[in-house]
Amino acid sequence: VLDSNTKYLFSKSVGLLSPNASESAYAFHNVLDYAQQGTIYRLRLGKIMWIHHDKFFREACATVHAFADKFIKKALNIRNNKNSLQDEKSEGVRKQYIFLNELTQDCNDPVMLSDQIINMLLAARDTTAGLLSFIFYTLARRPEVWQKLRTEVVEGWEEPMTYEALQRMTYLRYVIQETLRLFPPIATNSRMANKDVAIPYGGGPDGNSPLFLKKNNVVTYSTYVMHRRKELFGVDADDFKPDRWEKLRPGWEYLPFNRGPRICPGQRFAITEAGYTTARLVKHFARIENRDPTEFREQLTLSLTLNNGVRVAMATA
User: Fold this and answer.
1) Over the stretch 26-51, which tens digit does the pLDDT of each residue have?
2) What is the DSSP string of 49-110?
3) Which terminus, N or C, of the chain has the lesser number of Cβ atoms within 10 Å?
């Protein structure tokens, strides 16, 4: 996921899965992990995060920013070099879509660009990787779901695979939606009031009365808990049942990517990436077996992940 996302964002993959992966690729992967662990720790500290002093955390953050700044400088040079852009257009060659280059068309502040691109890098990497992990974690324990999914994928597969063909795989979409319901990548979230406001529900003994929020008050909510509420998703809310999505049309009770003005901008990209990867593996392998005898145990960093990883065996036909 890190390889594909850096290719999309910067036009150059870090090459972590390459047979000749460099030491710098592994080093960047490790400092990104360390910086992320430190960030979630500081978020948990809240107003007393000032007590957190970690030299290696600050060095890791500096390394991540330096990595992004290298590409930002290049993108801004391209933006400012109008003659170069004109030459590209005149050649009649279709340009490769590079997210950072498109971002510089609306913003030329290096600090803002760095904040935006690193946010995208973190959000796209762990959330999509976590989603894929939970998909195969669950499929390994539900052979009937695997078989139904594989039948659809094999029948609907096209070469080369297209976005339209993926969209026609409805059961694949149901599997992804059900995984996102039970294991939302962002298990908790929060919002701060930018002014005094009264929201219609949440107050009173039963939670059905208005609730006053003073400016700068923070509201924290758990999508993990909300997605498992039986009054919202039925008495079988704790069960993995992709078929429920044939009729299920949820509103604000289903927020794997949030909603409203701050909905995840990479939602379609993440679902497409997860859908293609899942379909590719399901088509290639005929069977999947669970090789992890332990009970489910989550690990919460900036996103929800599996503490033990995904231990499965896959066999070709």
Assistant:
1) 888 888 888 888 888 888 888 898 89
2) GGG---HHHHHHHHHHHHHHHHHHHHHHHHHH-HHHHHHHHHTTPPPPP-HHHHHTTT---H
3) C
Between 144 and 258, the higher pLDDT residue: 144
Measure the CA angle with vertex 269, ends 263 and 274; round to 5°.
Answer: 115
Helix (H, G, I), strand (E, B) or coil at 243: helix
pLDDT value of residue 95: 64
Q: Alpha-carbon distance 242 to 239, whole Å?
A: 9
Sequence-separated (6 or more) residues with CB below 8 Å from residue 269? 8, 124
The distance from CA 86 to its chain's CA centroid, rounded to whole angstroms, is: 36
By the 8 A CB rule, do 153 and 279 touch?
A: yes
d(CA 221, CA 190): 6
Residue 131 and residue 180: Cα distance in Å, rounded?
7
Tokens of 23: 């030491």
Closest by Cα among 12, 32, 10, 14 to 103: 10
- Could you give the 3-state DSSP secondary structure of residue 20? coil
> Do strands 209-213 and 197-203 pair parallel, antiparallel, or not at all (unpaired)?
antiparallel
- What does the pLDDT read at residue 93? 52
Per residue in 155-168, pLDDT tens? 999 988 999 999 99
Long-range contacts of 254-262 (CB under 8 A, 24+ apart): 254/181, 254/227, 255/184, 255/189, 255/223, 255/226, 256/180, 256/181, 256/184, 256/185, 256/186, 256/223, 256/227, 258/186, 258/189
pLDDT in tens, 58-107: 999 999 898 888 888 888 888 877 545 555 554 555 566 777 888 888 88
Position 290: which residue type?
Answer: N
Question: Virtual CA dihedral for 260, 265, 266, 272, nearest 10 degrees?
Answer: 60
pTM of the model: 0.81
Least Cα distance to 195 among 220, 217, 225 occurs for: 217
- Of 138, 140, 228, 124, give the one whose Cα is nearest residue 174: 138
